[in-house]
Design a protein that fits this description.
The protein has helices at residues 4-12, 33-37, and strands at 100-101, 137-139, 144-146, 150-152, 155-165, 170-171, 179-194, 198-211, 219-236, 239-257, 263-264, 268-281, 287-297, 302-309, 312-319, 326-327. It is mainly beta. It is flat, with a radius of gyration of 20 Å. The model is unreliable at 1-31, 69-78, 103-108 and 117-133 (pLDDT under 50).
Length: 328
């Protein structure tokens, strides 16, 4: 039997890890503990679907650094934030910046496996419809496939799916070739212990819709939203601290063309991402940092990115499908 969380990552797993490049020489509050907390996403984003590259592994929980040194060593390099050279929250998911070939068939892009278990064989007859072996059941009340609650490593996870064909008619399962639109809703809550002395209370949810999955589709369209928080208490180097983070995103009208065996990237739509963090170290003044990223795709090979970090705004660009984020 597969690890239970692997089912949850059937969609989220398509969002590949992207390194979050840094340019801290010009980053506001590059030395603050709270700015460093914006580098990774809250733990809930490892379970839910979003543009953040998150992880629910306890080892990825945030812990303030450098307690044995001063908060700022005078050179603005004691604690690093995401800077102007990369995206916050672990980075921007590969599915949202391109470099992936979207072919016309199921299994040829990062949004192809919505609603299917990741242990189904894409070439087997069984994978042509949603696999109910994990006891997910279609509800005539909600017109959704409702899955039983999963509890794992202190987290309680709920998820459900809806399936529509190209005409908008409800389907009771994912049907390969005819299912055109899939909506995935997930929520997670609980408490996890990490780094031996740190306890984090986790909450999060996501609501993501992908259309254009049916045979003959020429593009995928993605819309969604997510939100997540974690609140942590613990000690490091014998010093007590508390930390809280809140993050979320809204994906609107993201259009990704389908091209056989060729890299493709969004040609329309926007992604708005935001995150705030507050870190309080015993004996020191609380540190707070916030960041907002607005990413716009206009059909060109360059995404427009507006970043506002702690009140400072910069206009940036990112070549597609790959290229370094640069800011004016």
């Amino acid at each position: 039997m597969k690890h239970p969380l692997r089912i949850l990552f059937a969609t989220g797993g398509a969002v590949l890890m992207v390194a979050c490049a840094t340019d801290n020489s010009t980053s506001p509050l590059a030395s603050s503990q709270a700015a460093a907390a914006l580098v990774t996403a809250p733990l809930s984003f490892g379970v839910t679907n979003s543009s953040f590259v998150g992880s629910s592994a306890p080892t990825n929980g945030f812990v303030p650094m450098g307690f044995s040194a001063n908060e700022n060593d005078g050179n603005n390099n004691e604690h690093e934030g995401p800077g102007w050279g990369g995206f916050m929250g672990g980075g921007l998911g590969e599915a949202f910046i391109g470099g992936i070939g979207f072919g016309p068939g199921i299994g040829s892009g990062p949004f192809e496996n919505f609603g299917r278990r990741d242990d189904d064989d894409a070439d087997s007859e069984e994978s042509d419809s949603f696999n109910h072996s994990d006891n997910c059941v279609f509800s005539t009340t909600t017109n959704r496939v409702e899955c039983p609650t999963i509890t794992h490593d202190g987290l309680t996870i709920n998820r459900s799916f809806s399936f529509l064909d190209a005409s908008g008619a409800v389907q009771q399962a994912f049907v390969r070739g005819t299912t055109n639109t899939v909506n995935v809703k997930k929520s997670v809550s609980g408490t996890v212990t990490h780094h031996e002395t740190v306890t984090s209370t986790v909450n999060g949810s996501s609501d993501l819709t992908v259309a254009g999955l049916a045979s003959g589709s020429t593009q995928r369209t993605v819309d969604g939203k997510s939100a997540g928080t974690d609140a942590s208490t613990g000690t490091r180097d014998g010093v007590a601290f508390t930390a809280s983070r809140a993050a979320g995103d809204t994906i609107t009208g993201l259009v990704i063309p389908i091209q056989e065996e060729h890299p493709t990237f969004p040609t329309a739509g926007t992604i708005i991402r935001s995150m705030t963090a507050t870190v309080t170290v015993s004996g020191k003044t609380p540190s707070t940092s916030s960041r907002r990223e607005v990413i716009t795709f206009d059909g060109s090979a360059t995404a427009k990115v507006v970043i506002t970090h702690d009140g400072v705004t910069k206009n940036c660009t990112k070549p597609l499908p790959h290229g370094r984020l640069t800011c004016a």
